[in-house]
Amino acid sequence: MISIETAKNLEDLFLVKAAIMGKKLESIGGRRGVMEILSLSLAAYKSQDYEKSLKILEPLLDAIKDHPFESDGAVTYVSISDEMEWALYHYFFQVPPGHLVKNVSSICPMDLIFRQYILASIDFGDYTCAKNALTEVVQWNPTSAKCRLLYAILSSAEERWDELLGEIICCMKYVCRSKDIVHCFQYLKYYFIRKKMNKEALFCSFLRSRYSLSNDVFMDILHDMVMLIPKIGMDYMNMCDEEMEESCKKLGITIGFNPEVVAVAQRSYEDAFIAKEYEKADYFAEVMADLKTEQEKKNALSLRQLLERHGAQIS
After folding, report:
1. Is the distance from CB of 236 to CB of 311 less than 8 angstroms?
2. Which of 238, 163, 209 is nearest to 301 (CA)?
3. CA-based nearest residue to 255, from 267, 268, 246, 264
4. 210 near 294, Cβ under 8 Å?
5. Which H or E element spans position 132?
6. What per-residue confidence (pLDDT) applies to 229?
7. Which residue, 210, 253, 262, 280, has most beta carbons within 10 Å?
8. Can you say whether residue 45 is alpha, beta or left, with left for phi > 0 and alpha for psi between -120 and 50 degrees?
9. Phi, psi for 77 (deg, rounded to 5)
10. Reported pTM
11. What is the chain's Cα-based Rg?
Protein backbone atom coordinates (compact mmCIF):
# COMPACT_ATOMS: atom_id res chain seq x y z
CA MET A 1 0.00 0.00 0.00
CA ILE A 2 1.23 3.48 -0.79
CA SER A 3 2.24 5.49 2.25
CA ILE A 4 1.53 9.20 2.69
CA GLU A 5 5.17 9.92 1.97
CA THR A 6 5.18 7.73 -1.13
CA ALA A 7 1.98 9.38 -2.34
CA LYS A 8 3.56 12.77 -1.83
CA ASN A 9 6.55 11.65 -3.87
CA LEU A 10 4.27 10.32 -6.61
CA GLU A 11 2.47 13.66 -6.73
CA ASP A 12 5.83 15.40 -7.08
CA LEU A 13 6.78 12.93 -9.80
CA PHE A 14 3.53 13.72 -11.61
CA LEU A 15 4.37 17.44 -11.56
CA VAL A 16 7.77 16.63 -13.07
CA LYS A 17 6.15 14.52 -15.79
CA ALA A 18 3.59 17.23 -16.46
CA ALA A 19 6.42 19.72 -16.91
CA ILE A 20 8.19 17.36 -19.30
CA MET A 21 5.03 16.95 -21.37
CA GLY A 22 4.47 20.71 -21.35
CA LYS A 23 7.98 21.18 -22.71
CA LYS A 24 7.36 18.63 -25.48
CA LEU A 25 4.24 20.54 -26.54
CA GLU A 26 5.95 23.94 -26.69
CA SER A 27 6.91 23.43 -30.34
CA ILE A 28 3.22 23.33 -31.31
CA GLY A 29 2.00 26.09 -28.98
CA GLY A 30 1.27 24.10 -25.83
CA ARG A 31 -2.18 22.75 -25.02
CA ARG A 32 -3.79 25.68 -26.84
CA GLY A 33 -1.83 24.70 -29.92
CA VAL A 34 -3.05 21.11 -29.52
CA MET A 35 -6.67 22.27 -29.58
CA GLU A 36 -6.05 24.50 -32.61
CA ILE A 37 -4.52 21.58 -34.53
CA LEU A 38 -7.44 19.35 -33.59
CA SER A 39 -9.87 22.01 -34.79
CA LEU A 40 -8.09 22.33 -38.15
CA SER A 41 -7.96 18.55 -38.56
CA LEU A 42 -11.66 18.24 -37.76
CA ALA A 43 -12.51 20.95 -40.31
CA ALA A 44 -10.62 19.01 -43.01
CA TYR A 45 -12.34 15.81 -41.89
CA LYS A 46 -15.79 17.41 -42.19
CA SER A 47 -14.82 18.51 -45.70
CA GLN A 48 -14.09 14.82 -46.41
CA ASP A 49 -10.40 15.54 -47.03
CA TYR A 50 -9.23 12.69 -44.81
CA GLU A 51 -5.66 12.71 -46.07
CA LYS A 52 -5.35 16.41 -45.18
CA SER A 53 -6.95 15.77 -41.79
CA LEU A 54 -4.27 13.17 -41.02
CA LYS A 55 -1.50 15.39 -42.38
CA ILE A 56 -2.53 18.23 -40.06
CA LEU A 57 -2.26 15.86 -37.09
CA GLU A 58 1.33 14.79 -37.84
CA PRO A 59 3.13 17.47 -35.74
CA LEU A 60 0.79 16.69 -32.85
CA LEU A 61 1.37 12.95 -33.09
CA ASP A 62 5.13 13.55 -33.18
CA ALA A 63 4.88 15.77 -30.09
CA ILE A 64 3.15 13.12 -27.99
CA LYS A 65 5.54 10.31 -28.91
CA ASP A 66 7.45 8.94 -25.92
CA HIS A 67 5.17 10.76 -23.50
CA PRO A 68 6.08 10.33 -19.82
CA PHE A 69 2.69 9.13 -18.57
CA GLU A 70 3.17 5.38 -18.29
CA SER A 71 0.82 3.68 -15.83
CA ASP A 72 2.21 1.19 -13.32
CA GLY A 73 1.18 -0.61 -10.15
CA ALA A 74 1.06 2.63 -8.16
CA VAL A 75 -0.36 5.16 -10.62
CA THR A 76 -2.88 4.99 -13.46
CA TYR A 77 -2.77 7.81 -15.98
CA VAL A 78 -5.95 8.60 -17.89
CA SER A 79 -6.99 11.36 -20.25
CA ILE A 80 -10.68 12.09 -19.76
CA SER A 81 -11.62 15.43 -21.27
CA ASP A 82 -15.35 15.39 -20.49
CA GLU A 83 -16.60 16.07 -16.95
CA MET A 84 -19.43 13.53 -17.20
CA GLU A 85 -17.07 10.84 -18.50
CA TRP A 86 -14.77 11.61 -15.54
CA ALA A 87 -17.72 11.12 -13.18
CA LEU A 88 -18.53 7.83 -14.90
CA TYR A 89 -14.92 6.71 -14.49
CA HIS A 90 -15.11 7.19 -10.74
CA TYR A 91 -18.39 5.24 -10.67
CA PHE A 92 -17.51 2.29 -12.90
CA PHE A 93 -13.80 1.91 -12.10
CA GLN A 94 -13.27 1.39 -8.40
CA VAL A 95 -9.74 2.54 -7.58
CA PRO A 96 -7.95 0.25 -5.07
CA PRO A 97 -6.95 1.88 -1.78
CA GLY A 98 -3.55 3.51 -2.01
CA HIS A 99 -3.63 3.66 -5.82
CA LEU A 100 -3.42 7.04 -7.57
CA VAL A 101 -5.31 8.03 -10.72
CA LYS A 102 -4.09 11.12 -12.53
CA ASN A 103 -6.08 12.73 -15.33
CA VAL A 104 -3.65 14.29 -17.81
CA SER A 105 -6.30 15.87 -20.06
CA SER A 106 -5.60 19.39 -18.81
CA ILE A 107 -1.97 18.90 -19.82
CA CYS A 108 -2.58 17.07 -23.09
CA PRO A 109 -5.99 15.67 -24.18
CA MET A 110 -4.75 12.30 -25.41
CA ASP A 111 -8.29 10.97 -25.82
CA LEU A 112 -9.28 13.78 -28.18
CA ILE A 113 -6.08 13.40 -30.21
CA PHE A 114 -6.47 9.67 -30.77
CA ARG A 115 -10.20 9.97 -31.40
CA GLN A 116 -9.63 12.43 -34.22
CA TYR A 117 -6.77 10.33 -35.62
CA ILE A 118 -8.93 7.18 -35.63
CA LEU A 119 -11.89 8.89 -37.32
CA ALA A 120 -9.71 10.20 -40.14
CA SER A 121 -7.82 6.90 -40.46
CA ILE A 122 -11.02 4.87 -40.83
CA ASP A 123 -12.45 7.11 -43.53
CA PHE A 124 -9.05 7.26 -45.25
CA GLY A 125 -9.11 3.45 -45.31
CA ASP A 126 -6.15 2.84 -43.03
CA TYR A 127 -7.85 0.29 -40.80
CA THR A 128 -4.62 -1.09 -39.35
CA CYS A 129 -3.55 2.25 -37.89
CA ALA A 130 -7.09 2.88 -36.68
CA LYS A 131 -7.19 -0.49 -34.90
CA ASN A 132 -3.84 0.10 -33.17
CA ALA A 133 -4.92 3.55 -32.01
CA LEU A 134 -8.27 2.22 -30.75
CA THR A 135 -6.51 0.12 -28.12
CA GLU A 136 -4.72 3.24 -26.94
CA VAL A 137 -7.70 5.59 -26.87
CA VAL A 138 -9.82 3.26 -24.71
CA GLN A 139 -6.93 2.91 -22.26
CA TRP A 140 -6.76 6.69 -21.98
CA ASN A 141 -10.53 7.11 -21.67
CA PRO A 142 -12.44 3.89 -20.94
CA THR A 143 -15.77 5.60 -20.22
CA SER A 144 -16.08 7.61 -23.43
CA ALA A 145 -18.99 6.45 -25.57
CA LYS A 146 -17.56 8.51 -28.44
CA CYS A 147 -14.29 6.58 -28.24
CA ARG A 148 -16.05 3.22 -27.97
CA LEU A 149 -18.28 4.08 -30.93
CA LEU A 150 -15.12 4.12 -33.02
CA TYR A 151 -14.86 0.36 -32.49
CA ALA A 152 -18.34 -0.03 -33.97
CA ILE A 153 -17.48 2.27 -36.89
CA LEU A 154 -14.37 0.22 -37.67
CA SER A 155 -16.23 -3.09 -37.24
CA SER A 156 -18.87 -1.85 -39.69
CA ALA A 157 -16.22 -0.72 -42.17
CA GLU A 158 -14.58 -4.16 -42.02
CA GLU A 159 -17.98 -5.94 -41.97
CA ARG A 160 -17.27 -7.68 -38.67
CA TRP A 161 -20.92 -7.68 -37.65
CA ASP A 162 -20.84 -9.84 -34.51
CA GLU A 163 -18.03 -7.69 -33.14
CA LEU A 164 -20.05 -4.59 -33.99
CA LEU A 165 -22.93 -5.80 -31.83
CA GLY A 166 -20.62 -6.41 -28.87
CA GLU A 167 -19.00 -3.00 -29.22
CA ILE A 168 -22.36 -1.20 -29.34
CA ILE A 169 -23.59 -3.04 -26.25
CA CYS A 170 -20.38 -1.99 -24.45
CA CYS A 171 -20.72 1.59 -25.70
CA MET A 172 -24.31 1.86 -24.47
CA LYS A 173 -23.14 1.13 -20.94
CA TYR A 174 -21.51 4.58 -20.91
CA VAL A 175 -23.42 6.66 -23.45
CA CYS A 176 -24.64 9.94 -21.99
CA ARG A 177 -25.36 12.12 -25.02
CA SER A 178 -28.33 11.98 -27.36
CA LYS A 179 -26.14 12.33 -30.47
CA ASP A 180 -24.13 9.29 -29.43
CA ILE A 181 -27.14 7.09 -28.69
CA VAL A 182 -28.53 8.05 -32.11
CA HIS A 183 -25.32 6.69 -33.63
CA CYS A 184 -25.63 3.53 -31.52
CA PHE A 185 -29.06 2.79 -32.95
CA GLN A 186 -27.82 3.61 -36.44
CA TYR A 187 -25.11 0.94 -36.20
CA LEU A 188 -27.50 -1.52 -34.61
CA LYS A 189 -29.67 -0.97 -37.68
CA TYR A 190 -26.72 -1.96 -39.88
CA TYR A 191 -26.19 -5.08 -37.78
CA PHE A 192 -29.81 -6.21 -38.02
CA ILE A 193 -29.94 -5.55 -41.76
CA ARG A 194 -26.92 -7.81 -42.25
CA LYS A 195 -28.54 -10.47 -40.08
CA LYS A 196 -31.77 -10.13 -42.12
CA MET A 197 -33.67 -9.19 -38.96
CA ASN A 198 -35.60 -6.51 -40.79
CA LYS A 199 -38.20 -5.75 -38.11
CA GLU A 200 -35.47 -5.12 -35.56
CA ALA A 201 -33.56 -3.03 -38.10
CA LEU A 202 -36.59 -0.83 -38.69
CA PHE A 203 -37.20 -0.52 -34.95
CA CYS A 204 -33.62 0.61 -34.29
CA SER A 205 -33.88 3.07 -37.15
CA PHE A 206 -37.08 4.44 -35.61
CA LEU A 207 -35.56 4.66 -32.11
CA ARG A 208 -33.37 7.52 -33.31
CA SER A 209 -36.49 9.70 -33.42
CA ARG A 210 -36.71 9.43 -29.62
CA TYR A 211 -33.39 11.22 -29.25
CA SER A 212 -33.23 13.61 -32.18
CA LEU A 213 -35.47 16.26 -33.72
CA SER A 214 -33.25 16.44 -36.80
CA ASN A 215 -35.12 16.47 -40.08
CA ASP A 216 -32.21 14.55 -41.63
CA VAL A 217 -32.68 11.75 -39.09
CA PHE A 218 -36.42 11.63 -39.73
CA MET A 219 -35.92 11.50 -43.50
CA ASP A 220 -33.39 8.71 -43.04
CA ILE A 221 -35.98 6.77 -41.00
CA LEU A 222 -38.50 7.16 -43.81
CA HIS A 223 -35.86 5.98 -46.28
CA ASP A 224 -35.32 2.89 -44.13
CA MET A 225 -39.06 2.27 -44.12
CA VAL A 226 -39.08 2.35 -47.93
CA MET A 227 -36.22 -0.17 -48.00
CA LEU A 228 -37.28 -2.49 -45.18
CA ILE A 229 -41.08 -2.70 -45.22
CA PRO A 230 -41.22 -4.74 -48.47
CA LYS A 231 -38.83 -7.22 -46.84
CA ILE A 232 -40.91 -7.45 -43.67
CA GLY A 233 -44.17 -8.30 -45.42
CA MET A 234 -47.74 -7.25 -44.76
CA ASP A 235 -47.59 -7.93 -41.02
CA TYR A 236 -45.50 -4.82 -40.39
CA MET A 237 -48.59 -2.87 -39.28
CA ASN A 238 -48.81 -5.22 -36.30
CA MET A 239 -45.35 -4.26 -35.08
CA CYS A 240 -45.25 -2.64 -31.65
CA ASP A 241 -42.52 -1.09 -29.56
CA GLU A 242 -42.88 -3.63 -26.73
CA GLU A 243 -42.41 -6.62 -29.05
CA MET A 244 -39.31 -5.13 -30.62
CA GLU A 245 -37.84 -4.13 -27.26
CA GLU A 246 -38.11 -7.73 -26.07
CA SER A 247 -36.41 -8.96 -29.23
CA CYS A 248 -33.52 -6.54 -28.69
CA LYS A 249 -33.23 -7.36 -24.99
CA LYS A 250 -32.65 -11.02 -25.85
CA LEU A 251 -29.41 -9.91 -27.51
CA GLY A 252 -28.36 -7.86 -24.47
CA ILE A 253 -29.33 -4.51 -25.98
CA THR A 254 -30.65 -1.92 -23.55
CA ILE A 255 -33.22 0.34 -25.20
CA GLY A 256 -32.25 3.78 -24.00
CA PHE A 257 -29.73 5.25 -21.62
CA ASN A 258 -28.21 3.10 -18.89
CA PRO A 259 -30.07 3.95 -15.63
CA GLU A 260 -26.72 3.96 -13.82
CA VAL A 261 -25.52 6.76 -16.11
CA VAL A 262 -28.65 8.77 -15.37
CA ALA A 263 -28.08 8.26 -11.63
CA VAL A 264 -24.44 9.42 -11.89
CA ALA A 265 -25.53 12.60 -13.67
CA GLN A 266 -28.19 13.28 -11.03
CA ARG A 267 -25.81 12.70 -8.13
CA SER A 268 -23.08 14.80 -9.73
CA TYR A 269 -25.52 17.65 -10.23
CA GLU A 270 -26.66 17.48 -6.60
CA ASP A 271 -23.09 17.32 -5.27
CA ALA A 272 -22.03 20.33 -7.35
CA PHE A 273 -25.09 22.32 -6.31
CA ILE A 274 -24.59 21.59 -2.60
CA ALA A 275 -20.94 22.59 -2.95
CA LYS A 276 -22.08 25.84 -4.58
CA GLU A 277 -20.12 24.98 -7.72
CA TYR A 278 -22.87 26.47 -9.85
CA GLU A 279 -21.10 26.37 -13.20
CA LYS A 280 -20.43 22.67 -12.70
CA ALA A 281 -24.02 22.16 -11.56
CA ASP A 282 -25.29 23.86 -14.72
CA TYR A 283 -23.12 21.50 -16.78
CA PHE A 284 -24.61 18.41 -15.16
CA ALA A 285 -28.11 19.88 -15.45
CA GLU A 286 -27.50 20.13 -19.20
CA VAL A 287 -26.32 16.50 -19.26
CA MET A 288 -29.46 15.44 -17.39
CA ALA A 289 -31.63 17.30 -19.89
CA ASP A 290 -29.87 15.51 -22.75
CA LEU A 291 -30.49 12.17 -21.05
CA LYS A 292 -34.22 12.67 -21.47
CA THR A 293 -35.76 11.25 -24.62
CA GLU A 294 -37.70 13.47 -26.96
CA GLN A 295 -40.71 11.39 -25.89
CA GLU A 296 -40.20 12.69 -22.37
CA LYS A 297 -39.79 16.24 -23.62
CA LYS A 298 -42.86 16.17 -25.82
CA ASN A 299 -45.51 13.80 -27.11
CA ALA A 300 -43.37 11.91 -29.63
CA LEU A 301 -44.51 9.35 -32.19
CA SER A 302 -44.58 5.62 -31.49
CA LEU A 303 -43.37 3.25 -34.17
CA ARG A 304 -46.95 2.16 -34.85
CA GLN A 305 -48.07 5.78 -35.33
CA LEU A 306 -45.21 6.33 -37.77
CA LEU A 307 -46.17 3.21 -39.70
CA GLU A 308 -49.82 4.21 -39.79
CA ARG A 309 -48.94 7.67 -41.14
CA HIS A 310 -46.47 6.57 -43.79
CA GLY A 311 -46.70 2.80 -44.15
CA ALA A 312 -49.57 2.72 -46.60
CA GLN A 313 -47.82 5.05 -49.05
CA ILE A 314 -44.52 3.16 -48.69
CA SER A 315 -45.91 -0.32 -49.23
Report:
1. yes
2. 209
3. 246
4. yes
5. helix 127-140
6. 87
7. 210
8. alpha
9. -100, 130
10. 0.87
11. 22
- N residues, the chain: 315
Q: Are strands 100-103 and 75-78 parallel, antiparallel or unpaired?
A: parallel
Q: Which of 189, 178, 45 is nearest to 123 (CA)?
A: 45
Provide φ and ψ at 149, rounded to 5°.
-60, -30
Q: pLDDT digits over 244-254, tens only? A: 889 888 999 98
pLDDT tens for 4-63 read 355 468 788 888 899 999 999 999 999 999 999 999 999 999 999 999 999 999 999 999
User: Could you give the CA distance from residue 100 to residue 110 in angstroms, rounded to a whole number?
Assistant: 19
Q: What share of the chain is helix, strand, coil (3-state, %, to 5)?
A: 70, 5, 25
Determine the Cα–Cα distance for residues 284 and 83; give it in Å rounded to an integer. 9
Higher local confidence (pLDDT), 172 or 299: 172
Per DSSP, the chain holds a count of helices (H) and strands (E) of: 16, 2
Q: Please tell me what DSSP assigns to residue 227.
A: H
Distance of alpha carbon 52 from alpha carbon 90, whole angstroms: 37
Q: Which residues pair with 76 in a beta bridge?
A: 101
Q: Distance between CA 92 and CA 80 in Å, rounded?
A: 14
What type of residue sits at position 245? E
